[in-house]
Every structure is written in C-alpha cells, then in structure tokens.
Amino acid sequence: MPYTTLSEQMKYLSNPQRSDAFVKRFREAVRTGEIEAAQLPQRFTLPKTFRKRGSNETGTREVREMIFELTPEYETWFNQVNEELAAPTRSAKIKPSVEAIASGQLDFKALAEETRRQMQARFEHGQKLGQSRTQARAKPTRRGRATKAKK
Prior knowledge:
Elements: E1 3-5, H1 6-10, H2 19-32, E2 37-45, E3 50-51, E4 58-59, E5 62-69, H3 72-86, H4 98-103, H5 108-138
Antiparallel strand pairs: 1-5, 2-5, 3-4
C-alpha cells in the first residue's frame, strides 16, 4: 500500500478553508484508532487563512506533518469527512425587514407566531413579578420596639 502525508492530502480537500477542521478530525481518528498514522518532525502550513480581529491582516497556522497508509477504509473515511466539511456551516441570520418578508426570505406567519410567543412570555413574567411584590407587601411587618412579655 502506498503512503502519503497529511500535507499531500490537503490538496484533495474540496474546501481548503476547512483544512483546520480536517486536521482536527484526522487527529481524532488517529487517536481513536480509526486511522493508522505516525507523526513526522516536519511542519507544514495549512491552506486556510485566518483573519485577525480588529485589522485586515491575515495569518496562517502550521501543524505537524503525519504519514499514513492509503487504504480503502481511509478513502471512505476521507470522502465522508470531505463531504461533511464541504457543506456550508451556517448562513447569516436574515434580519426581519419589509423587503425580506416581501421577497419570501422570511415567513411572515412564523415571524408573527414568534412575536406573539415573546409578548406572551413578557406579559406572564410581568404578572408574576407584580404578584410577588403584592404578596411581599401583604405580609405584616413588625415595626417599632419589641416589647417584653409581662409576668
């Protein structure tokens, strides 16, 4: 069976920006015994570029190189992981607006139901708060000096 390195396998990822997630999954598979691999002393740079907060600078990350055997089991594992990583992670939440509702990006009925549920929850919370305050006021409080019991 031929051997290959992790850096060589990165070239076959369908989404290079998810290479850090692939390395994490690969290392987990090695740790659990799903894949047989050995670490090498070299390091390689991931194809993913990271954005630094607060500036327009980008950075990269280096990880340790690993060597492993190309087996049919690995090929099926790689195809499955590559497919999962190629799927979009999450889409940006669409802000409610007249245009978004008119274009059909947001469901008006679902939005109205969510609003109704939030308003009901706030109303009930306010009622509960008011009731607890009136109960606290209704309790008799002893004011003044405590008197001694007479003999």
